[in-house]
Write a structure and sequence with these properties.
Number of strands: 18
Shape: globular
Distance between the termini: 25 Å
Bound molecules: nicotinamide-adenine-dinucleotide, zinc ion
Structural class: alpha/beta
Radius of gyration: 20 Å
Helix content: 25-40%
Order of helices and strands: EEEHEEEHEEEEHHEHEHEHEHEHEHEHE
Number of domains: 2
CATH topology of the largest domain: Quinone Oxidoreductase, Chain A, domain 1
Oligomer: single chain
Largest sheet: 7 strands, mixed
CATH class of the largest domain: Alpha Beta
Strand content: 25-35%
CATH superfamily of the largest domain: Medium-chain alcohol dehydrogenases, catalytic domain
Length: 362
């Protein structure tokens, strides 16, 4: 079977800078699709991989927030065909695990990925980030990971639905079940948190409070729908959220940082019987300590949100349509478009807080 040699952004070892190298991508086998990547956003999770905070399966092929065009499909593929414009999903429900069988495919515990390996030119297998690996011109996925959407959408904007923006929108719309008239607070207004703000607005929330330590992020939060913003470097966010909600706290508080201090703020900033949604990814060393009587006495629910509890085949085309109708400003998340050789610089811009999303354009 043919093998394609392309460029890919590889994270070679824990903490080491990423490298742009030649990689080998096999032609699609049974159930697989080869996708020509047009755009791929730089997500904080790519940086977590490079730091070794996800696992130790180096070398990684980074990039997992991508849109492109199907180049070839393998035998038995029926959901997509060459020429289709697709967003790549890191959840492709299997239909057979205990969660799929209970009718809850958005929690699928055995999500599908390509069977064949992409490799370095010496044959060593690459671990594709989140089962995708899309900082490369061609990538190999399970065909069910490729979700067809309206081709009139810009690939830069569409790719963002593949991870961070979906995670944030879904944290509000699916996991948090934000509804008309609700009050919502979002702690951490990066790409994910600001998408949670946009999702809260789409769901009809009345009060939407953005909290961050960086003024630039709060400016974006106001643009995407925050009715109020709080800079928590100089203001106690719990007190401020209570003040803005009649002294009660918010119905839904979304933590989009991934850190015990901000999780504790979220816990105390929610109203009685409210919901906390943790969408930020903590590192394995982090611990929280909460009085159990408060967990009990406040009622409500403490939830985690993986990928915004999305069902890609349901949510991706719907969100792209909202974008094309002018009701979801995905372009506002694209701070800069960069080349495939600029991922390391994009990590630095991310760490300095200069961008919501840098998007690699192939
Ligand atoms: N659950 C999921 O499915 C999923 C998917 C994608 C990303 N994530 C995670 O979501 C988190 C956010 O991702 P992102 O791409 O938006 O990252 P980002 O770096 O763009 O945003 C993080 C934001 O948090 C702010 N922040 C940092 N410390 C803070 C504090 N103490 N108080 C308030 N704000 C603070 C930063 O200023 C920044 O604006 C990451 O942990 C990422 O791994 C989760
Ligand atoms: Zn399943
Ligand atoms: Zn991501």
């Amino acid at each position: 079977m043919a093998v394609n040699e392309v460029h890919g952004v590889v994270s070679p070892a824990r903490g080491a800078p990423v490298e742009l190298v030649s990689i080998l991508v096999p032609d699609p086998g049974e159930g697989e699709a080869l996708v020509r990547v047009q755009a791929c956003g730089v997500c904080h999770t790519d940086l977590h991989y490079r730091e070794g905070a996800i696992n130790d399966d180096f070398p990684f092929l980074l990039g997992h927030e991508a849109a492109g065009v199907v180049e070839k499909v393998g035998p038995d593929v029926t959901n997509v065909a060459p020429g289709d414009f697709v967003i790549l999903a890191w959840r492709a429900p299997c239909g057979n695990c205990r969660s799929c069988l209970r009718g809850r495919p958005w929690y699928c515990f055995a999500s599908r990925n390509a069977q064949q390996k992409m490799t370095l030119t010496d044959g060593s297998p690459l671990s594709p980030a989140l089962g995708i690996g899309a900082f490369c011109e061609l990538t190999l996925v399970n065909a069910l990971q490729a979700v067809k959407v309206d081709p009139s959408a810009s690939p830069l904007a569409a790719g963002l639905i593949g991870c961070g923006v979906m995670a944030g929108l879904g944290a509000a719309m699916n996991t948090g079940d934000v509804g008309r008239g609700d009050s919502v607070a979002v702690i951490g207004c990066g790409g994910v948190g600001n998408a949670a703000i946009a999702g809260s607005r789409l769901s009809g929330a009345h009060t939407i409070i953005g909290v961050d330590i960086d003024e630039r992020k709060l400016e974006w939060a106001r643009q995407l729908g925050a009715t109020h913003t709080i800079n928590s470097t100089d203001t106690d966010p719990v007190e401020a959220i209570r003040d803005l909600t009649g002294g009660n706290g918010a119905n839904v508080v979304i933590e989009a940082v991934g850190n015990p201090a901000t999780y504790e703020q979220a816990f105390y900033a929610r109203d009685l019987a409210g919901t906390v949604v943790l969408v930020g990814v903590p590192d394995p060393t982090m611990r929280i300590e909460l009085p159990l009587i408060e967990v009990f006495g406040r009622g409500g629910s403490l939830k985690s949100s993986w990928y915004g509890d999305c069902l890609p085949t349901r949510d991706f085309p719907m969100l792209i349509d909202l974008y094309l109708q002018g009701r979801l400003d995905l372009d506002a998340f694209v701070s800069e478009s960069i080349g495939i050789g600029d991922v390391e610089a994009a990590f630095a811009s991310m760490e300095r807080g200069e961008v919501l999303r840098s998007v690699v354009v192939m």
